[in-house]
Structures are given as structure tokens and as C-alpha cells.
Amino acid sequence: MKHDRINTNGINLHYVSEGEGNLMLFLHGFPECWYSWRKQLPEFAKDHHAVALDLRGYNESDKPSESSAYKMPELVADVKGAIEGLGYQRCTLVGHDWGGAIAWNFAYEYPEMLDRLIILNLPHPAKFSQGLRTPQQLLKSWYVFLFQIPYLPEFLIQFDDYKLLETALKGMAVNQEVFSAEDINFYKDAFAKRGAATAAINYYRNIFQAGILEKKWGILEVPTLMIWGEKDIALGKELTYGTEEYVRNLQIRYIPNCSHWVQQEQPNLVNQYIREFIGL
């Protein structure tokens, strides 16, 4: 795997890449980094230029200090600049969690730049907005409201050698053994970089300013695959129901007995479903 940096939207983003061919770009979620795609990059590098970014604020990428730097338009602009900076006009875009949220928004903004869209355990923004109006999903999203508080979330995450990160990763997993001590330490080290904790939490601090509950969403024309670990304790499976109202060409593949960390917990199935979808 090759490590490099690319300048996009006024900042430098670190990325890891492997292989040659059409671009397949991977966007990670919270509280992760490029490493969450370690089981996908070698597979899709067989016939693609597979690239996993560290999103702004994470790991080796730049970490702007102002909270407004983590609004969705900036995150979408990062992806556009990364695709172009890598020498491409189009790609297959793969996103998980926050990376999935960015990918959904990017697909609506720049559909002409996507061959395929693949989303893992992150509902369509309209469905998430609807979910946040229900007591069931509000309870599951309690941490979103905690993260609105200044300073306290950073303290809680950093306390006791980032124990909360380990709890989130292993505690949410159906098979906790999927995260080795080495894996956990990699994520802790990435989050321990100066400014990373606040940057990651600033994504959440911009959710409500972004007007997520009010925005109107049209019908997406980009062929889209959703892969969903059914044992996600943060995002209910019911948030996927009705997605076809917003996506004209949609496939959904559910993975039973699998958590939010779907591409790490069931990498073979995830890779198989992606292969079937892209027709390779």
C-alpha cells in the first residue's frame, strides 16, 4: 500500500492507495480513518485504483481548528478535489457512517462524477431526518446530542487512554475478536494526534446547522448499493425502509448478526456484494 497526500479544497488529505485502473474511493466514518478499509483495499486493487482517504480532521490529514470547517459543503468539496487531484473525472464512491453521509451528499451534488455509489450502514439523509423525529432513533442517537456540548466529549474520549474508543469499537461489534489489540491501538493512535478529537466531534457539531431536518431531497439517479449490518445499535434497520422512494436504481443487501462495523466484521460478504454490484 502506498501512503501519500493530496491538496484539495485548501487542505492536505492523507490517503492510502493500491492498484491501477478506474478509481474506487473509500470514505471512512467516526471514529476511524483509512484503516477501516484495510480488508477492502487489497481486494479491489486487483482491478481498480483503490484509494482510502483520511477525512479532514482525522489521522494524518489536516485538522482545521474552526468548527465551521467541518460543515457538509466543505466535506463534499474535499471529495471532489480528491477525485480530480488523483487525475480522474469519475469514480465508484464507497462510504461508511460519516463517510456514507458525505457520499450521499456528494452523489446529489455531483452525480455526473459517479459510476456507482455504495453506502454502508448510513441511511439516506431523508430517512435519517425522519428517524430523528422518532423516540426509537432519538434514543439510539443520544451521543449526537452529547457531542454538542463544548469540551466534555473530548475529555470523555481521551480519558483512560481513549478507553471510550475501544468500548465503541469492540462493544458495538457482534464479534469483538474482529478488532485485535493492534487494531484498537491503531485507532487510538490516530485519534490521539493533536486536534483530532475536536475535529472528529466537530462533524457532529455541524449536523443541526446544516439543516438536516428541513432539506428536501429529490430522486437520485446514480446506481446505488446499500449494505447494512442488521445488529447496528446506533442506526436502526428501519431507517433503510423506503429508501427506494429517493433512489431510482437501488439494491440493499442486509447482513444478519453483524454490527455497525460491517466492512470489518464481515469483509468477505461486503466484498462479495460490492463485486456483484459493480459487475466484476
Task: Please describe what this structure looks like.
- Residues 23-265 form the AB hydrolase-1 domain.
- Pfam families: Abhydrolase_1.
- This is Soluble epoxide hydrolase.
- Keywords: Hydrolase.
- This protein is α/β, with parallel strands linked by helices.
- It has helices at 41-44, 72-85, 98-109, 125-131, 135-140, 142-146, 152-172, 181-191, 196-205, 262-265, 267-278, and strands at residues 2-8, 11-18, 22-27, 48-53, 91-96, 114-120, 224-229, 250-255.
- It has one domain: Alpha/Beta hydrolase fold, catalytic domain (Rossmann fold, 3-Layer(aba) Sandwich), CATH 3.40.50.
- The longest helix has 21 residues, at 152-172.
- The relative contact order is 0.15.
How is the topology of this model organized?
Layout: E1 2-8, E2 11-18, E3 22-27, H1 41-44, E4 48-53, H2 72-85, E5 91-96, H3 98-109, E6 114-120, H4 125-131, H5 135-140, H6 142-146, H7 152-172, H8 181-191, H9 196-205, E7 224-229, E8 250-255, H10 262-265, H11 267-278
Parallel strand pairs: 3-4, 3-5, 5-6, 6-7, 7-8
Antiparallel strand pairs: 1-2, 2-4
Helix pairs in contact: 2-3, 7-8
Protein name: Soluble epoxide hydrolase
Pfam family, one: Abhydrolase_1
Keywords: Hydrolase
